[in-house]
Amino acid sequence: MHDGIDNPSFTSGGEEGFKSFNKDSAELQHSSAEKTPKDHPQPDGEQKFEEGPCGWGSCTPRFLQRCNNPIGYLCMYSLLAVMQGTSVNGLVNVVISTIEKRYDLNSSLTGLISCSYDIAFCLLSLSISFYGQRGHKPRWLAFSALMIGLGSIVFSFPHFTSGLYEFGSESSDVCEISRTNSTVQNCTDNKGSPLTKYLYVFVLAQLLMGVGGTPLYTLGTAYFDDSLPAHKSSLYIGIGYGMSVVGPAIGFLIGGQLLNIYIDFNKGQSVHLTPNDPRWLGAWWIAFVICGLITWLLIPPFLCFPKHLPGTAKVQSEKISEAHSNGSESIVEKQNLGKSFKDFPLALLLMLRNPVLMTLTFASCADALITTGFATFLPKIIENQFSLSSSFSAILGGGVLIPAAAIGQVLGGVIVSKFKFECKTIIKFSVVTTFVSVALSSVFLFGMCGNDPFAGVSEQYNGTGQIGDIVAPCNDNCSCTRSFYDPICGSNGVQYFSACYAGCTSVTLNGDIKLYNNCSCIGEQVRKLSQFQSFNMSAAQNGKCEASCKRLPLFMGFFFFVVCTTFMTATPITMAILRCVPDKQRSFALGVQWLFIRLLGSIPGPILFGVIIDSTCILWNVNECGIKGACWTYNNSKTAYSLAAISAVCKILTIVFLFIAICIYKPPQRKAESLQDNSTIISSVSL
Q1: Is 496 strand, coil or helix?
Q2: Is the pTM above the cut of 0.90?
């Protein structure tokens, strides 16, 4: 309108025509201003936006009023998001293997621990987001801090109620001639350890943290949109989501360092073990106690925020509805939906019948499927693709995944805020970033490497034995066990399952390095490894052989941009969801979104990736009773192709759902009519 008025071409029709147009334009603007902004009536005489000072009841210190704004709330929200990410997505993943050893839990049981958080989130996301959308959202965030802190402390309880850790005697890692078949076990008398009962404590702790996490990502996010103009809320939400990604990095860093402290140091137990000993268990519980106490410190600050920040009423009165035009907005306004739980079925039905909301939600689910899968298994992928240690792989994976995800979250919010995208433009922007992410997903093919020589796995023992069997004539008389994977690298450049399976009979220490000698399975080949100073061809060194594949920098560089572009769509899709639903249903819409993300993305993602990765296993741990355990090594090429395929499929699904959302989205009818009237007037004046 203003561009048309300021254009000199409109004055060529004469002064009279210009005055007539100017008058009509002014009337149209006034009429449009009355129609398009959201009206906020005072239902039943009750004030709709209860703005107030920052404080606790009548105690409203002056210095606290500096925090009574969106920036102050963003700081507290970010801290809570960091603590939630630290405990749930960081510490739990770091200590899971320690918990397995300490409490005799297998991977399927620890998997139940991991998904208990998502189960609680799914069960409560709809009810909390519906009930809390008209309530005091900061108080719900205080409740969130209470439950996350409580869950974190409960997670540490098993350490204080269980006895001392019994680490047993050290086992030999060299070949010892077996006299009798002492490895046969009575497989029928296996009874569960009494320590496994602590599984229920860990599950309870995760459920409590799931209860706390639900208001954080539904009501807490909607509070930003309540208090800020549409183009600014995306920036704040992007920063808040970005901080939630920083939490796991802190959890990995702190949790990993604390594992260098002995588990029972507080119980007066003195041991001679070192962290390099396979029997060592670190103090996994310390970080959970600290994290719980710090999270509880956030309860008072959230309780001091008012129900609505100052200026909320003005912001809401100036907002223009962009809800998808399918009649749901009139129903919500006419019935004042959401005042009681009696409205829940109708409110849920309106959400499920909103095709734009559901297609955007399914797009988020497809992205969540691959992001949670990679977050869980990226260290394992790096470890096997490039023959790195598990600790270094975890550091490398976290060092790329966490910053890239945080940058993507914030960058997506900044772009939407900077260019003030409308709902449909936001969806188009998400399509573009997803296309870029698909193109970069070829990282798995660029970084694909074959398997390095592995005796009994990818090649024979000097022409003896069979591929797929690590037992060969050269180690058949050794009493070796497959339950402990301790790889060594022979002087011939071939990796062996352990010193025992390499037939090594003696070991010498050179600092932290173990040098094995007289290894009957290592052939008299030309020496390939520079670390062996002697010409003893039957020698080996502890650790995996250096990978022949040199594509690690290329892989990590591409993967950084894949993660960044993937997370760039997270904040924009959240903003599109907030805009495509009626104002009074924004919190509930986020609850619906997160329910489907957990059910179709976060929960099945790690399971699906685990099944795919396990399907590429070429060496399983099978105990003396014939029970299959963990996989020791994988087919690298098959793993790369499989992961590239599942990534491409999920990305294509994301694009399809986003395209559908673009095609079916209809802005509110009154806004469309206003734009059409504008065009008609401008055209008539131009003529």
Answers
A1: strand
A2: no
